[in-house]
């Protein structure tokens, strides 16, 4: 409470009130002045002084300097005629340790009595606010908005805004609106308010108080220590209790004084996830196996909800229980920030993802516990579709390989060579055609007998010809039956595969169906009828067996008929016998010629080879069609990858929106978010199948990787057409060596590693397994990979402090390590100020920028008396508290003389 009379200080009465108030009420002496400024309503100025000042001496000084003695007041025309010089009085108040406040807004005798109708008046008000006023006292809360949005930005300075009761009768004390000032009930708090205007709040309850009261399970209230009763450890170490402020807490102390120990103990009691990185509660220090001092002490943490947790300092955290605090050890922060690469699954990546996941609303988390699990859940159907498309793509690639092999110059030349060989074989065969042996003219009587035998032979040969045709027909039927049986087998296997896929599909959707309370079988049903296939296969099998029997019988009969012809031939006379042998030889020769000429269906025959050569001219059209199908299929794969990117953008959108709305983030940090498709492992996936020692565009290990990298650098991986063009261009370079101009043709097969088929390389290129969706975070146009370890650490701290929406207490051990002071001041200070508005923040620090400039709500000074039985003492208090203030100067500034000495040596900015 401050008591301010007009132009007087009732020293005796204020003294008595201070005695009555004792430790319950702090009474601050003050005085209100009328100044020369303003119009009809003069601007009033108030000076407020420390509760422990020499008030009588102060009042005597003010009376003299400002001519406020009774005689001077009388000489000047009485109290109503008294006024003082604004600037002189303000300087005098400050000179004697006071704080200057003035009425503002619509309050009577406000500084706004100085109008804005002339430029010099606006300049005068600006100078007064900048140089002579510490606090504005408004008359109503609505006055604040104009100052916050217009005045303060205009003058480049923010002043605290408070409201007094303005009561003139203590028995009728009332307030228009409660005024809250965060800090100890002392004049030092008033001084701190001048440097940190955010300490003041108007309204029924400050926002942070309401937040704390409504979430008592999220704020640590106290940590206490006891030694185990039967402990044999003689050292004291941890005793007593430490109160913990719900706002920003700074743990300070000299090196090795127990600062980190307190942070880790809070982390242990809060079941943090980073206990493996403890630097004090580990087996190298306090938990040494041979002398485990941790077993001798237990700690209890009391939450503001009154819930308490007690553990031995040798206990471990429970991995099966959720963390109740978030603790970032110094070593852990260093470790993840020094990772060489930002790859999916890295510690750095996991930490960023955990913060981003905190922005996903509960209804959008779909029961998952991490961002990665949510991404996997949301993209599983798309990944399955990609797998199916890659199988289809693989079949197309096999067709293309087969067509390319047929269309190759080697294959064409081989067929031409075969045709030429068959033609030579046919010419040679024609050259050995049996010379004709005409039917002889013999004695009529004898000739009749010979003709009768000849007729028998001819009849038998006619039957033999029929049998030969029948045998050929049987062979054809059996070949057709074999094809039908094989086709039936493939169909049956495909049906089996489809049925298995159906069962897998039912299993895949069962969990989701259980959530909806429906049966998977009600959504998907299939009917597989194998009867037609089995019937066709059975018919073909029966036909093949029948024809085998028929063919065997006919072959046996043909052999018997041939034997009969031989017997009959022996009965002929020499001329007729010679003629008959000629006929048999001609028959054999004709059969052999027919085999050489063959048909379009008979492999290795001249007609078959000629047909193959003819079909070569049709292959370019077939290849072009197959390649078009492949291009269309690779675009389908890419379309699914794009859908996954859309999932990423959807899931990351909330954190992007938060950053765009957050004023601190917008002003201080240039954070950019974008989901895109990136290449991952391209050289391993593609060049891993290539022998880089062979002639080709990618000859040489380093040269080959560089050539592929250069291709990828100019490729467009964000569009389907760009990806298809890259795949086709990359594939083409395995057919032509682009190291020379113009490129020369090379063999694809010769460039492949052992046991690698051409279709496998095509699958690697067109399957797009090297294209991965990635949500990229940039800071000032630099990707995470381009940031230095210090910058990565800063970015991670920004995420923890500014962007993380988790509301459990956040404990950070020495966040300023590896950061320069300018970065600490410019970035971390703003983030810490913002974080304290949402959650309890506890930092271990050596940096005055974090403890003092951030205006910590509580300082906990740690000290260990190694000579006094290793007793660790924690002294807690506000920054304005004289004891903790002195300790802060000692630890953070290296004593006050050192601080003053440095201050004297720095030049003030012009």
From TrEMBL:
<dbReference type="InterPro" id="IPR027417">
    <property type="entry name" value="P-loop_NTPase"/>
</dbReference>
<protein>
    <submittedName>
        <fullName>ABC-type lipoprotein export system ATPase subunit/uncharacterized coiled-coil protein SlyX</fullName>
    </submittedName>
</protein>
<dbReference type="InterPro" id="IPR016195">
    <property type="entry name" value="Pol/histidinol_Pase-like"/>
</dbReference>
<feature type="coiled-coil region">
    <location>
        <begin position="386"/>
        <end position="413"/>
    </location>
</feature>
<keyword id="KW-0175">Coiled coil</keyword>
<dbReference type="InterPro" id="IPR054787">
    <property type="entry name" value="TrlF_ATPase"/>
</dbReference>
<keyword id="KW-0449">Lipoprotein</keyword>
């Amino acid at each position: 409470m401050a008591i301010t009379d007009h132009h007087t200080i009732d020293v005796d009465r204020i003294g008595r009130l201070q005695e009555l108030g004792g430790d319950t009420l702090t009474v601050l002496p003050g005085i209100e002045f009328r100044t020369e400024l303003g119009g009809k309503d003069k601007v009033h100025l108030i000076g407020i002084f420390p509760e422990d000042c020499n008030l009588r001496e102060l009042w005597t000084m003010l009376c003299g300097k400002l001519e406020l003695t009774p005689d001077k007041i009388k000489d000047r025309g009485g109290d109503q005629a008294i006024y003082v010089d604004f600037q002189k009085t303000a300087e005098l108040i400050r000179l004697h340790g006071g704080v200057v406040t003035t009425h503002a807004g619509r309050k009577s005798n406000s500084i706004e009595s100085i109008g804005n109708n002339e430029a010099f008046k606006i300049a005068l008000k600006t100078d007064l606010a900048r140089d002579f006023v510490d606090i504005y006292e408004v008359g109503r809360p609505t006055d604040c908005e104009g100052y916050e949005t217009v005045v303060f930005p205009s003058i480049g300075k923010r002043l605290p805004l408070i409201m007094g009761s303005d009561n003139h009768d203590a028995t009728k004390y009332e307030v228009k609106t409660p005024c809250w000032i965060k800090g100890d009930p002392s004049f030092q708090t008033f001084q701190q308010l001048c440097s940190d205007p955010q300490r003041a709040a108007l309204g029924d309850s400050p926002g942070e108080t309401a937040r704390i009261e409504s979430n008592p399970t999220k704020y640590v209230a106290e940590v206490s220590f006891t030694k185990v009763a039967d402990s044999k450890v003689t050292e004291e170490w941890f005793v007593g209790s430490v109160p913990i402020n719900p706002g920003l807490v700074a743990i300070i102390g000299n090196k090795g004084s127990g600062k980190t120990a307190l942070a880790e103990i809070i982390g242990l009691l809060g079941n943090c996830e980073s206990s493996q990185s403890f630097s004090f509660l580990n087996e190298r220090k306090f938990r040494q196996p041979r002398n485990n001092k941790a077993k001798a002490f237990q700690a209890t943490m009391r939450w503001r909800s009154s819930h308490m947790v007690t553990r031995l300092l040798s206990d471990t955290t429970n991995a099966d229980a959720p963390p109740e605090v978030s603790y970032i050890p110094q070593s852990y922060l260093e470790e993840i920030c020094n990772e060489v690469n930002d790859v999916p699954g890295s510690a750095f990546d996991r930490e960023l993802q955990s913060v981003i996941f905190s922005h996903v609303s509960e209804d959008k988390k779909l029961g998952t516990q991490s961002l990665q699990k949510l991404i996997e859940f949301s993209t599983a159907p798309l990944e399955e579709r990609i797998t199916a498309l890659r199988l289809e793509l693989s079949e197309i690639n096999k067709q293309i390989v087969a067509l390319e092999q047929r269309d190759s110059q080697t294959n064409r030349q081989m067929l031409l060579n075969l045709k030429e060989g068959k033609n030579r074989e046919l010419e040679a065969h024609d050259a050995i055609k049996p010379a004709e042996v005409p039917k002889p003219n013999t004695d009529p009587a004898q000739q009749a007998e010979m003709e009768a035998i000849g007729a028998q032979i001819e009849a038998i040969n006619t039957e033999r010809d029929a049998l030969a045709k029948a045998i050929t027909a049987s062979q054809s039927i059996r070949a057709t039956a074999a094809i039908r049986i094989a086709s039936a087998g493939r169909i049956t296997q495909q049906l089996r595969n489809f049925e298995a896929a159906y069962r897998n599909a039912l299993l895949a959707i069962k969990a989701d169906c259980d959530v909806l309370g429906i049966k998977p079988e009600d959504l998907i049903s299939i009917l597989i009828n194998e009867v037609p296939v089995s019937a066709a296969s059975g018919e073909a099998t029966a036909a093949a067996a029948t024809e085998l029997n028929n063919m065997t019988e006919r072959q046996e009969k043909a052999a018997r008929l041939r034997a009969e012809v031989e017997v009959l031939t022996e009965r002929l006379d020499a001329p007729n016998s010679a003629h008959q042998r000629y006929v048999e030889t001609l028959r054999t020769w004709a059969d052999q010629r027919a085999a050489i000429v063959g048909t379009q269906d008979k492999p290795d025959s001249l007609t078959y080879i000629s047909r193959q050569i003819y079909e070569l001219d049709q292959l370019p059209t077939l290849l072009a069609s197959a390649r078009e199908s492949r291009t269309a299929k690779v675009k389908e794969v890419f379309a699914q990858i794009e859908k996954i990117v859309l999932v990423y953008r959807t899931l990351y959108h909330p954190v992007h929106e938060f950053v765009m709305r957050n004023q601190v983030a917008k002003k201080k940090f240039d954070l950019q978010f974008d989901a895109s498709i990136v290449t991952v492992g391209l050289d391993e996936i593609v060049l891993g199948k290539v022998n880089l020692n062979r002639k080709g565009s990618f000859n040489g290990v380093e040269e080959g990787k560089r050539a592929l990298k250069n291709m990828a650098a100019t490729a467009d991986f964000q569009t389907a057409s760009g990806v298809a063009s890259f795949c086709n261009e990359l594939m083409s370079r395995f057919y032509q060596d682009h190291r020379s101009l113009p490129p020369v043709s090379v063999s694809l097969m010769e460039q492949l590693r052992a046991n690698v088929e051409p279709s496998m390389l095509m699958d690697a290129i067109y399957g797009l397994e090297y294209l991965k969706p990635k949500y990229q975070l940039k800071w000032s146009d630099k990707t995470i990979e381009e940031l230095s370890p210090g910058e990565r650490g800063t970015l991670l701290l920004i995420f923890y402090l500014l962007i993380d929406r988790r509301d459990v207490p956040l404990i950070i051990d020495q966040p300023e390590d590896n950061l320069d002071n300018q970065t600490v001041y410019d970035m971390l200070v703003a983030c810490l100020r913002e974080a304290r508005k949402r959650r309890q923040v506890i930092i271990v620090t050596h940096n005055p920028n974090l403890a003092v400039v951030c205006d910590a709500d509580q300082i906990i000074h740690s000290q260990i008396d190694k000579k006094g039985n290793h007793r660790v003492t924690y002294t807690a208090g506000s920054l304005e508290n004289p004891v903790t203030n002195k300790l802060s100067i000692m630890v953070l500034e290296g004593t006050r003389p050192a601080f003053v000495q440095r201050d004297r040596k720095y030049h003030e900015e012009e």
